[in-house]
Amino acid sequence: MSWKQGAQVRAGGLAAMAAALMLGYAAPALADVKIGVLMPLSGKGASYGQHQDIAMKMAQEELQKASGGKIELVVYDTRGENAEAINLTRKLISNDKVAAIIGPFFSAECEVAFPIAVQNKTPIVTASSAKPGIAAKNRPWAFRNALSSDQMNGFMLDVWLKHHPVKSVVILTDVKDAFTKVDGTVVFPAELKKRDVQVLDNISFQTGDIDYSAQVTKAKSLNPDGILIAGLYNEGGNIVREIRKQGLKQPIVGALGMSETRFLDIAGPAGDGTTVVNPFWPDDPDPKVHAWATEYQKRAKVASGNTAALMYDSVLLMKHCIDSKGITGAGDLAGNREQIKTCLTEVKDLPGITGPLSFNADGDARLPPTVLIAKGGKWQAVKD
C-alpha cells in the first residue's frame, strides 16, 4: 500500500473514530480501569521513551475530551534494561493489577517480559519492538502494534534497489541490540540474497560505541556498491557521518531503528540520501495525520517518529477494547484481561494515526509501510 492509499484509509477512519468517541458506549464509568505502560524514560533509548510519553499524554487528553472518561495509566521507566522490564511487568500484573500492558519498548525487553504476561494471562502490546517472531512465540496474550522488520525490509529493499541498482553491499550490524542483530545477520542477508545482491562482509559494532572509524575503513576497503546499517538512530547517525567523512559516496540504507527524527539531528547533512522504512510518516498530507503531527511537534519541539505515533494508537486501541467490551475497574480482573485479549484478537481496521489497526494470526500489526529518504533534515516519502 502506498502512502497515498494509507492516507485515504486514515482520512475516513480517523473521522469515524472521532465520531464513535463522541457518541460513546452504553458502558459504566471507566475511570478506574488500569493499563500499565513500560517505557525507557531514562538510560538506553530515553529519547524514544520521552517521545512516547508525549504521545501517550496526547492520547489521554483526546479521549478525556471526547468521551468524558479516562484510562488510568500506570507508567514505569524500564531504562531499557531487561531486568527492569521483568520486575516491572510482574509489579504491574501482581501489585497494580492492571487489565493490560502497553510495552515494553526494546525487543530484548519484550523477549523476557512477554512470557511473564502469558503466564499470568495478561494481554501485553508492544508499540515498538520489531524483532520477528516475538509476539508469535507468546500467543495468544502478546501483540505487537508495530511492524516487524521482516514485514518491511524486503519492501524497502525493492524500492531502494529500483533507485540504486547495486550488486554488492557491506552490512554494519549492532550485535548488542537484539532487534538490530537479527536484522543485520538474518533478515537483511536473506532478503538481499533473494534479490541477487552479494554481501561482501558483515562488520559488527555495539550499542554505545563512539568511534566507528575502523568499521568504516574496513567497509571502504571492500568498495561495495551500497552500504546497509542495521543500527539504532544514535549509532546509525554517527556511522553515516563517519562514512561521509571518509569520502564514501555509496547509497546508504538503514534499519527501522534509524527512522527516528533524532537520526536526522545526529547525522546532519551527511544523512541526506539515507533510505529507511517506517509505518508512519510525520509529513503525510492526510489532514488528520497532519493535525496530529503538528500538535506533537509543538509539544516535543521535534517531528514525531514512528514509535510515538504507535504509542498514541496503542492507547486508543486499549480504550476501544475497554469501551466495546463494557469493562470497568469494578469487574473481575481475570475476566477483564480475557475480554481485552479477545478484543485485540478480533479488532479489524480500527482507525489510527499510523493506519487501520488490526493484528494477524501471529499477533503482529497489519500496517502499510512507507519508504523514506532523508533530505534537508527531514524525512520524505519515496515514490515507488
Structural description of this entry:
- It is a single chain.
- The protein has two domains: 3-147 and 285-368, Rossmann fold, CATH 3.40.50.2300; 150-278, Response regulator (Rossmann fold).
- Helix 5 (149-163) crosses helix 6 (178-194).
- It starts with a helix and ends with a strand.
- Mean pLDDT is 89; it is low at 1-31.
- It is α/β, with parallel strands linked by helices and 384 residues long.
- The protein is globular, with a radius of gyration of 20 Å.
- The chain is built from twelve helices and twelve strands.
- A five-stranded parallel sheet has the order 2-1-3-4-5, sandwiched between helices. A four-stranded parallel sheet has the order 7-6-8-9, sandwiched between helices.
- The longest helix is centred in the N-terminal third of the chain and has 22 residues, at 46-67.
- 54% of the residues are buried.
- The chain has helices at 3-23, 46-67, 82-95, 107-119, 149-163, 178-194, 213-222, 233-245, 261-267, 287-300, 306-324, 333-346, and strands at residues 34-39, 72-77, 100-102, 124-126, 142-144, 168-174, 198-205, 226-230, 252-254, 275-278, 370-375, 378-381.
- 47% of the residues lie in helices and 15% in strands.
- Helix 6 (178-194) links the parallel strand 6 (168-174) and strand 7.
